[in-house]
Design brief:
two-stranded antiparallel sheet, Pemi-like Protein 1, Chain: D, alpha+beta, 2 helices
Length: about 70
């Protein structure tokens, strides 16, 4: 298991193995989401990076507005 230590300035360093595995880079922004006693860090991506992310998704089973009251 990878671990990190909170510094006196309340900073965390992400272990190199995790950075390499996820392709993280210096200066990258994250959404910080508290979930009970867990903190979730989600890398923020630009619209350009998100383009094509859902390519090939099949929306046929999505709920339609016609079934709302």
């Amino acid at each position: 298991m990878n671990s990190a230590t909170l510094s006196p300035k309340f900073q965390l360093s992400i272990p190199k193995r995790v950075r390499d595995e996820l392709g993280l880079h210096a200066g990258q922004k994250f959404a910080v989401i508290p979930k009970g006693k867990v903190i979730e860090l989600v890398p923020l991506i630009s619209m350009e990076e998100a383009r094509g992310l859902l390519k090939g998704a099949d929306p046929t089973e999505y709920r339609d507005r016609s079934d709302r009251y």
